Amino acid sequence: MAAASHSGKFLNHENPLNGETKDKLNEFFGSFANAANPLLLLDYDGTLAPFRVNRFKAKPWAGVRELLMQIQNQTRTSIVVVTGRPAGEIVALLGVKPAPEVWGLHGSERLHPDGRRDLEQLPPATLEKLNALRAQLRHDTAGGLLEEKPNAVVMHWRGVAPQKARVIAAKTRALFEPLAQMDGMTLLEFEAGIELRAGRDKGKAVKLLLDETRSRGPHPASYLGDDVTDEAAFRAMKGRGLGVLVRRKHRDTAADIWLQPPQELREFFSRWLDACRAGKPEPILQ
User: Fold this and answer.
1) 93 pLDDT more than 80
2) By the number of CB atoms within 10 A of the CB, which of 62, 130, 225, 241 ranks highest?
3) Fold of the 18-119+201-278 domain
């Protein structure tokens, strides 16, 4: 799908899913006519905001915050951010008011809009191993950027020269991979980094959210993400909603459609807003 004008007609570009994407979007937004509370599930980095070497400078694409605020203020849609970050980082970066619900740490942490916070508890043996690894890496990060989470240890190398990045990645894997064999521990690779973690992933978080909303009756649901860490969420959406891959270049994915940010992302949110207002949006024309 290419960027849309206000008339609903889309410009052509090299998107191999162009025709199929239009059909799936028309069907999805058409379902709003008979639904009360759509569910909009969103990854943050790479999806709502471009990646930054300094992650605290990763602000949303131009126009995205304003569109999400309009959707939020309609009060019809439930917006939930599902991110690998600690949930508290998202509220300030996203800047949407009132703040949406945020599931952080890939789903192990839940920050409610009223400020209540739930954190999945890990077994003592798992915490002991993670703490020992943290202590080791504080003394030697092999040139990478260490990030410590309550349920994980993360090594980043975004912005590092390719040759040095390969060295950091190799040394980190040598440390992480043996520990990933432990019960309840998993190795999560993402663009320019690797994470040794425990606890639920995005797929389990999305399934819990979908199950919670099942009692409300028919409700369109969509998950938007960009990274391989979002694939579990895309799989959880199968048969229950629309998975949307949001990135500049297409890759193999379990998502249903592919959109290129930021223009197509803004158009998606604009159509969501229109569908909520009118109940039935204008279809995308060929």
Assistant:
1) yes
2) 225
3) Rossmann fold (3.40.50)
pLDDT tens digit string along 193-219?
Answer: 999 999 999 999 999 999 998 776 678
CATH class of residue range 124-198: alpha beta
8 Å CB contact between 67 and 269? yes
Question: Would residue 105 be called left, alpha or beta, if left means φ above 0 and alpha means ψ between -120 and 50 degrees?
Answer: left
Give ∠ CA 72-68-151 in degrees, rounded to 5: 90
Strand ranges (DSSP E) for 142-269? Answer: 145-149, 152-156, 185-190, 193-198, 221-225, 242-246, 257-259
165, pLDDT greater than 90: yes
User: Which residues of the chain does CATH 3.40.50.1000 include?
Assistant: 18-119+201-278
**Residues 238, 247: Cα–Cα separation, whole Å:** 20
Amino acid at residue number 264: E
Q: Look up residue 44 and give its two tokens.
A: 């943050």
Backbone angles phi, psi at 12, to 5 degrees: -85, 140
